[in-house]
């Protein structure tokens, strides 16, 4: 099953599947049903960071240096945690400026400098070529291991004809793929829908493959992680490799590797391509900021177990191959093939995206500026140049892949997978000062950026790249130990006498120090051009609201000249989109182009040719200049003032609305109080008039009737006495209520036994309740209930509750139940009746002054001899209870089904005694 024909058939069949997925993605995009509009697809595409280095090399590094491999993934995790602030700004800038690559990004920031863009493209080409070679090396080596196992799969590529190297043919197939799906449109800023879909699919494939071999290793070759690490613990040499002692260098090396991975994640051309250029919605960063770190965790979960298992079972074999050789050692057929496809997907996804990014930089930053200097180019027919430029980009793709293959064939044997990757990481880090500082510091100057890049790249080449050629035998290696011409302080791995450091941290320190120092130092003493000042303001203030909606041109040209320029370089289709807001007419050629049309034309050219070339072409037809720094700052200030005014207006509107709502509520409350006042006056008048009328009537009878029988005279006098008592009670209640509301009610709180008070109150009303036909039940199982209260006032409350319950009990079989029980350091007195109850909407209103519940089942004035009362008893009772630190409320009766009034008082403190 592992014959050469089978392996190649599966490999090229997998590549064919990528073609189908990419074609499907492009077809869906043309139908308006994009699949890259999903944040999940975006997060998976970012996983192109996990290359063959991750798939094979992380195990090799873990086997040699323990947990140090994790730093390569902690850096990107840190970067993604900062995505809402840092990467979001990069995406916003790229969208507004139609950025096509990291070289275009840096060029656009520094005044759309073509020279700086070309420098970045050249450094990227030199620095990333080893990384492409790494992927091709992984394909070649793993194919040899898979086919030849258990025989040695080693081969020296320099001694083999290239047509026998399978990675050469894979490179050619990938070239065809990239040409078909990466250069379908001239506008490099447009999304490569099919390619991104294929990359996301490959991220899933390599994850599944790696997890499969991890699970096999831990749970099949061993009996779980406990068994594996128990066997490692019995081998002291292996156990030491799991600890921090195995990590090369000191804490400085840890920090250096973390910084290296963090900066490389942001500046590697392929990462910039998927993070920034291919981003369709900056809101996708929110999910990607946690989903991508989760992916990194998953794909690295079994790295150390596989490394340890390989060292236990494979001995001194190449640890970069453990992922493949472990399942091969178990005589499996399917899993090794899956692992090979996983490694192939990790390698090809990186090669695809990296080559697209590099080819865009080569064509836009290196070749296009040279072509713009030739007169023949400007005389080309409409649309002819679009074909030329696509052809240039496609040739660049082939040449880049061949250059990567050449490095792989000549130098690749000298380095491990991880070593090659870290060399490219350090090269990409040289873009970080110019890019990141330029995004936040307006004063950064293009001359400082260029000199910093040159110095940093030369130091990188001396400390990392050139030693690779020496170790491959292409250069005399004596300078590594003795320095050039015997100058020891120029030794590549101990520059300026700095010895004992990890070589990558050592290189990063010196290269970034020179890079950053020159960038800042030269910028401080250089004067920016108006265009560079403008671009610096646009980059630094990229997150400013509404800034990028403003047209930045005030030059002049005609629509005809603008159309001719776009037709020549981009074709008629793009030209029609730029002028979509105007109807094409033969007479409008001499009409002035609007600033918005000029800006859209430059953006369209920028997307196809890069910002620097687009600037040159626009300047060839536009008379005038883009807005200078003062204009940009004026726009910013005006926008800021407008936003601040809007914010204040919104705040005032909110405050006004709140005040209006409060005023409306106050008016409603005043109206309610006015109504209550009227009702209070009417009710007081009515309640006072009733007994007074009775007293007056009977008094007049007694005065005018001299011959009144003694029996009637006594009866009338008795009525006068009772009505006088009723009048006194009413006046006393009104006075009590007034005292409560004014806070002048005098209470005499003292420790007392609530049980005794309840019994006394029940005895006081028992005879009256019997006369009314009310059955009164008392349930008190406590011997004593110590509270603090005014005995007279509490008795008044209890009698009032019992009186109310008797009034509203059932007409036919009136029953009232009183119970006393403890509850959470309080005592609850519950008075229930079996009447119709009180609805939820009325349960608070019964405590309002003079509020009386209307019963539809009884006459208004009489209920079997039970009077209604004044409507002041419950408000007074609640006030008394509240003054004593308790509560009074209404619930549904739990036993009798009617209303239940509950009084709750706190338990008296320990040590208190009755007065």
Q: What's a concise summary of this model?
A:
This protein is mainly alpha-helical and 915 residues long.
Work out the helicity level: 55-70%
Q: Biggest sheet: strands side by side, in what order?
A: 2-4-5-7-6
Shape: elongated
Low-pLDDT ranges:
858-867
Total helices: the number is 34
What fraction of the residues are assigned to beta strands by DSSP? Answer: under 5%
Per DSSP E runs of 2 or more residues, the count of β-strands stands at 7
Backbone CA Rg:
45 Å
Biggest sheet: strands, sense, closure? 5 strands, mixed
Class from secondary-structure proportions: mainly alpha
Mean pLDDT: 79
> How far is the N terminus from the C terminus?
103 Å
Using brief descriptors, characterize the structure shown.
single chain, 915 residues, mainly alpha, 7 strands, elongated
Task: Describe what you observe in this structure.
The radius of gyration is 45 Å and the shape is elongated. The strands form two sheets. It has a five-stranded mixed β-sheet with strand order 2-4-5-7-6. 45% of the residues are buried. It is built from 34 helices and seven strands. A hairpin with a 2-residue loop joins β4 and β5.
Secondary structure elements and their pairing?
Layout: H1 4-30, H2 39-46, H3 52-65, H4 71-81, H5 86-97, H6 102-109, H7 114-148, H8 166-182, H9 193-221, H10 225-233, H11 236-241, H12 251-267, H13 269-277, H14 284-299, H15 303-314, H16 322-329, H17 334-371, H18 375-378, H19 384-410, H20 417-428, H21 432-440, H22 446-471, H23 478-482, H24 503-524, H25 530-540, H26 559-570, H27 572-578, H28 595-609, H29 611-621, H30 629-704, H31 710-742, E1 750-753, H32 754-771, E2 775-780, E3 786-789, H33 791-807, E4 815-823, E5 826-833, H34 873-883, E6 887-892, E7 899-906
Parallel strand pairs: 2-4
Antiparallel strand pairs: 1-3, 4-5, 5-7, 6-7
């Amino acid at each position: 099953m592992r014959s050469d024909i089978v392996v190649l058939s599966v490999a090229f069949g997998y590549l064919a599947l990528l073609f189908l997925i990419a074609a499907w993605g492009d077809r869906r995009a043309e139908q308006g049903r994009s699949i890259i509009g999903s944040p999940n697809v975006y997060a998976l595409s970012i996983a192109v960071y996990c290359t063959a280095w991750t798939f094979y090399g992380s195990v090799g590094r873990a086997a040699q240096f323990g947990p140090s491999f994790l730093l390569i993934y902690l850096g990107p995790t840190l970067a993604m945690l900062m995505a809402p602030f840092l990467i979001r700004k990069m995406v916003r800038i790229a969208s507004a400026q139609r950025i096509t690559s990291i070289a275009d990004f840096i060029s656009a920031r520094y005044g759309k400098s073509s020279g700086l863009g070309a420098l970045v493209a050249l450094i990227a080409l030199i620095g990333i070529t080893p990384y492409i070679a790494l992927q091709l090396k992984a394909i070649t080596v793993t194919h040899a291991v898979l086919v030849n196992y258990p025989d040695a799969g080693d081969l020296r590529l320099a001694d083999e004809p290239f047509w026998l190297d399978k990675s050469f043919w894979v490179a050619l197939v990938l070239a065809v793929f990239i040409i078909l799906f990466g250069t379908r449109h001239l506008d490099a800023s447009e999304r490569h829908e099919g390619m991104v879909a294929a990359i996301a699919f490959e991220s899933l494939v390599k994850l599944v493959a790696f997890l499969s071999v991890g699970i096999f290793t831990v749970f099949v070759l061993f009996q779980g992680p406990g068994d594996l690490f128990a066997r490692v613990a019995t081998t002291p040499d292996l156990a030491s490799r799991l600890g921090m002692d195995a990590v090369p260098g000191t804490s400085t090396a840890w920090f250096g590797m973390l910084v290296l991975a963090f900066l490389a994640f942001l500046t590697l051309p392929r990462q910039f391509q998927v993070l920034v250029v291919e981003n369709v919605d900056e809101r996708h960063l929110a999910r990607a900021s946690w989903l991508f770190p989760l992916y990194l965790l998953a794909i690295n979960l079994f790295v150390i177990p596989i490394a340890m298992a390989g060292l236990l079972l494979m001995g001194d074999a190449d640890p970069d191959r453990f992922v493949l050789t472990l399942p091969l050692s178990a005589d499996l057929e399917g899993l090794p093939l899956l692992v090979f496809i996983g490694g192939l997907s990790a390698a090809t996804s990186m090669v695809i995206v990296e080559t697209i990014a590099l080819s865009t930089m080569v064509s836009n930053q290196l070749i296009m500026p040279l072509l713009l200097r030739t007169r023949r180019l400007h005389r080309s027919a409409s649309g002819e140049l679009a074909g030329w430029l696509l052809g240039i980009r496609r040739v660049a793709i082939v040449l880049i892949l061949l250059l990567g293959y050449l490095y792989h064939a000549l130098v690749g044997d000298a380095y491990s997978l991880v070593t090659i990757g870290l060399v490219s990481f350090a090269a990409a880090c040289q873009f970080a000062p110019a890019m990141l500082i330029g995004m936040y510091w307006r004063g950064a100057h293009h001359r400082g950026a260029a000199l910093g890049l040159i110095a940093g790249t030369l130091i990188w080449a001396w400390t990392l790249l050139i030693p690779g050629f020496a170790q491959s035998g292409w250069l005399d290696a004596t300078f590594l130990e003795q320095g050039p011409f015997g100058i020891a302080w120029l030794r590549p791995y101990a520059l300026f006498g700095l010895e004992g450091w990890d070589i990558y941290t050592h290189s990063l320190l010196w290269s970034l120090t020179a890079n950053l120092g020159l960038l800042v130092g030269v910028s401080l003493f250089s004067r920016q051009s108006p265009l560079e000042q403008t671009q610096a303001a646009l980059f630094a203030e990229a997150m400013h609201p509404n800034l990028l909606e403003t047209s930045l041109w005030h030059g002049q040209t005609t629509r005809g000249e603008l159309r001719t320029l776009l037709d020549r370089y981009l074709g008629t289709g793009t030209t029609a989109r730029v002028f979509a807001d105007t109807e094409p007419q033969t007479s409008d050629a001499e009409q002035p182009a609007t600033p918005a049309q000029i800006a859209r034309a430059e953006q369209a050219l920028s997307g196809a040719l890069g910002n620097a070339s687009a600037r040159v072409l626009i300047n060839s037809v536009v008379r005038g200049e883009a807005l200078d720094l003062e204009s940009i700052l004026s726009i910013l200030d005006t926008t800021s003032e407008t936003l601040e005014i809007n914010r204040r207006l919104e705040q005032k509107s909110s405050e006004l609305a709140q005040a209006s709502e409060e005023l409306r509520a106050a008016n409603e409350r005043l109206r309610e109080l006015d109504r209550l006042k009227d009702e209070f006056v009417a009710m007081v008048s009515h309640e006072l008039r009733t007994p007074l009328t009775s007293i007056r009537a009977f008094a007049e009878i007694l005065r005018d009737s001299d011959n009144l029988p003694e029996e009637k005279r006594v009866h009338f006098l008795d009525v006068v006495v009772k009505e006088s008592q009723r009048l006194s009670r009413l006046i006393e209640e009104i006075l009590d209520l007034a005292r409560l509301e004014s806070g002048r009610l005098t209470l005499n709180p003292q420790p007392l036994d609530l049980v005794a008070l309840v019994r006394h109150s029940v005895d006081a009303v028992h005879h009256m309740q019997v006369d009314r036909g009310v059955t009164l039940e008392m349930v008190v199982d406590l011997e004593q209930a110590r509270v603090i209260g005014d005995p007279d006032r509490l008795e008044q409350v209890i009698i009032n509750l019992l009186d109310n319950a008797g009034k509203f009990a059932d007409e036919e079989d009136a029953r009232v139940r009183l119970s006393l029980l403890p509850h959470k350091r309080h005592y609850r007195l519950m008075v229930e009746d079996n009447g119709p109850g009180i609805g939820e909407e009325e349960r608070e209103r019964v405590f309002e002054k003079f509020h009386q519940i209307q019963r539809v089942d009884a006459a208004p004035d009489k209920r079997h001899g039970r009077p209604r009362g004044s409507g002041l008893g419950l408000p007074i009772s609640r006030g008394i209870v509240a003054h004593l630190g308790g509560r009074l409320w209404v619930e549904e009766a739990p036993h009798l089904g009617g209303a239940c009034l509950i009084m709750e008082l706190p338990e008296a403190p320990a040590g208190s005694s009755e007065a």
